[in-house]
Structure formats: C-alpha cells, structure tokens
Design a protein that fits this description.
With 287 residues, the protein is α/β, with parallel strands linked by helices. The protein folds into two domains: 136 residues, Cobalt-precorrin-4 Transmethylase, domain 1 (3-Layer(aba) Sandwich); 119 residues, Tetrapyrrole methylase, C-terminal domain (Methyltransferase, Cobalt-precorrin-4 Transmethylase, Domain 2, 2-Layer Sandwich). 39% of the residues lie in helices and 17% in strands. It contains twelve helices and ten strands. A five-stranded parallel beta sheet has the order 3-2-4-1-5, sandwiched between helices.
Length: 287
C-alpha cells in the first residue's frame, strides 16, 4: 500500500471516529431517573437493601439534613455532599404549619411555589442524565410527603418508588400481634385531620358506622390531639376498648409500647415523655 493510500485510509478512519458520539456524550444524552426511596422508620437496619444501593449510586440526594446524621448513628454513611437541599423546607416546617392556620391562601401559594421549584430542579438534573433520590421516611405511600406534596402532577414515567417499612408495620411487630385478627372486618389507616377535618369540623358519621364492626384502627399524627380523639371515640366505643400507643416504632433503642384502654388513655399517656413520634392503635390487637 502506497503512502498516499495509507494516509487516505487514516483520514477516512479519523473522520468516521469524529462523527461517532463519544461514550460521555451518549451517557449525557440518556435521560436520568428519579427514585422516591422509603427509608423506613428508624435507620438502615429497617431500610431495604435496594434502597441503600440506590442511595449509594445516586448523583443527587434530596432530603432533610438530619437524614445523613440519623443514619450515621447506625454506622451507615449517606454522603452529605450529594444532598442538594431540604425539599421539605417551606412545606412542612413549624413556621409553615403556623402560616397554614393563619393564612391558608398564602400558605397554598408558597407551597405550590416550592413544589414547582423542587420539580424544576429535578427535571433539570434528569435532563443532565443524573440519578436523583428523594429520601422519604417510612413508606412513601402512607402519608409520605413526597407523593402527597412534592410530586403532585409529576409524570409517573419519570420516577420509581422504592417502598419502605411503614410505622404501622413496625408497630405491629412491636405489639407482637396480627393487625388483622380473626374477627376483624378490616384495618383502616387514617389521621385525626383526615377523619375529623383540620378544625374538627367533620361530623361523626364514619366513626359511628365503624363502631358497629370489629376493626383495627390506626391513627397517624395523633398524639397532639389525644384528648379530642378520646372524646370522639367515647361517644361510640366502650371504655374498655383496647388501645396501644407505640412510641418510636422501629427504633430499637427507644421503642416503647403503652397498652391501655379508652377509659384510662389520657391518664396513662401523661407518664410518657413524648408527644410526636407515636402511633395510635385501637382494637383487639392492642390487648
């Protein structure tokens, strides 16, 4: 082969290589993915291995700054350098909740603006081919703020949910009872706000009907309003209705179970030094 022909062949090869996209360009062109990750109720010992693997490979994490600190206490590292910001700011904080009561319309506008801001950030990272993990406590599908607030209207095809252990799972384990005992007609999960309204304006028709059947009642976010809950339940349930409060469900070092009855509930909870992290369970499984 002459020098001229060799030079022509090399030039053609170089031209062809220049036309081919680089591996970096191909990776950049691939769309990223968002994972909504259920972190369980306490730490990594109750977090699914797949969830931990996704956190490890993710390029960007959205979570409370307390999440890496919480997991560090169990000896598991969540790289704080990957945390972009706290997505719950302006949605779930104490000041925001106070604003919700004082000026609901302003709160709604600020919440919607935050949702738009967070979704916009996620979409930009996905366009860059990044893997984004939105870390939600417990199970994202049961009172999880990611699905309830932040991803309202977000395209389902753009994200995947990794389930986590919910507080009710951990509470059932702590009680060492089935939440679906033999005679129970059904189990229902709710919160005082969902059942009675934010200002307790809803009537008691649902509760009145429920009292006719053997059920397991699980109330999230209930400790702040136990006095009101006890008063409502007392209208339709007997004083010996079995009730359990599972404090810090799933936290091996803090978990405590208080078993009581409706008639003595308020007196018994006075001895417990906790008014937030506790799950209310009523029914035969609470015995």
């Amino acid at each position: 082969m002459t020098a001229r022909r060799i030079l022509a062949s090399c030039s053609l090869l170089l031209f062809t290589l220049l036309l081919l996209p680089s591996q970096t360009a191909l990776r950049a062109a691939e769309p990223g993915k968002l994972y909504v990750v259920g972190m369980g109720p306490a730490g990594p010992d109750l977090t699914a291995p797949r969830a931990l693997a996704i956190i490890e490979k993710a390029d960007v994490l959205l979570c409370s700054p307390r999440m890496p600190q919480r997991f560090a206490a169990f000896g598991t590292h969540i790289d704080p350098r990957k945390v972009a910001f706290d997505p719950w700011e302006k949605i779930l904080g104490k000041e925001v909740r106070a604003l919700k009561k004082k000026d609901p319309s302003r709160w709604a506008k600020e919440r919607d603006a935050r949702i738009e801001e967070v979704q916009g950030f996620i979409l930009e990272r996905l366009k860059e081919g990044k893997t984004v993990a939105l870390l939600d406590g417990g199970d994202p599908c049961v009172y999880g703020p990611s699905l309830q607030y932040l991803l309202q209207g977000f395209d389902d095809a753009r994200f995947e949910v990794i389930p986590g252990m919910g507080a009710f799972n951990a509470a059932g384990a702590a009680l060492k009872r089935s939440l679906t005992p033999e005679n129970a007609r059904f189990v229902f999960l709710t919160s005082p706000e969902s059942l009675f309204g934010e200002s307790w304006e809803k009537d008691d028709e649902i509760l009145k009907d429920l009292a006719k059947y053997e059920t397991t009642m699980i109330l999230y976010m209930s400790l702040k309003t136990l006095d009101r809950i006890a008063e409502r339940l007392s209208r339709y349930y007997p004083a010996d209705l079995p009730i359990a409060i599972v404090y810090y469900a799933g936290y091996s070092d803090k978990e405590t179970v208080l078993r009581t009855r409706l008639g003595s509930l308020l007196e018994d909870v006075k001895a417990m030094d906790e008014n937030w992290l506790g799950l209310f369970v009523a029914g035969a499984c609470a015995r």
